[in-house]
Amino acid sequence: MQDIVQTIQSLGFSQYEAKAYLSLVRQGTASAYQVSKESGIPRARIYEILKGLEEKGIVMKEERNEAIHYSSLPVDVFLESLQTRWNHTYQSLSHTLKYLEKTEPVEDNRVMTLKGESHILAFCRTLLKKAEKRVVISLWDKMYENLEQELKDTECDLKGIVFQKENPLSGLDTHRKTKYVENVGENKWFILSIDAREMIYGPALEERETAFYTDDPVHIYLLENYIWHDVLVNRLVKKEKDDIENWISNERDIFFQDK
């Protein structure tokens, strides 16, 4: 008998619900007291259990001679209702699972750490070969020299800025000579972005052989705009008076100064 109880439970019923239904199947029609006694369900719970089964349409309640009696839904009807419900669930689940199976999973955008100079340079060269439309860079002299041949070979639109390097490739600006650039020391960096979909950035490799790869659109948007800001300021300063350079240098010192 325990096996049939467990089987009914597997269909979504509680243990007490399964026992109450089986008790009524055996007895035909019975009072709550009789169901409680025959099934072993505590009397304190029997009315709650029978009411729940009634609401599910599994148990029917009727009044006889001013007494309440319960009877089970006929077994054939019960089984038919289960089959109908199962078929509906099966069809719905089958459709959903098959749709998901055909749909390629959407990967989360990544930010990955790259280690080792040769590995990082190889990754940069691979990205440059993959580029289809646009390459955006911000490179200091040594990193530019490492990637110069691949930059020459690309047929994409080349944009960005290069530090401490005269006469870079067409499309690239040379950053003006400033006190900040001359004294930046170890705080150099590089940014390489292709087609606004993949990017590698990090500190100068001669200082720290670590970089970061990302295909996250927010990272790419922010860093490409950072490069554009650098290019824009560089072009504007060239058009203005000489003393603006001192003003920019002073304003930068104030901005990054701790109070």
Automatic annotation (TrEMBL):
Record carries keyword Coiled coil: yes
Regions annotated as coiled coil: 137-164
One matching Pfam family: TrmB
InterPro entries in alphabetical order: TrmB-like, Tscrpt_reg_TrmB_N, WH-like_DNA-bd_sf, WH_DNA-bd_sf
Record-annotated Transcription regulator TrmB N-terminal domain positions: 9-67
Key words, A-Z: Coiled coil
Presence of the UniProt keyword Acyltransferase in the record: no
Official protein name in the record: Helix-turn-helix domain-containing protein
Species of provenance: Bacillus changyiensis
Taxonomic classification: Bacteria, Bacillati, Bacillota, Bacilli, Bacillales
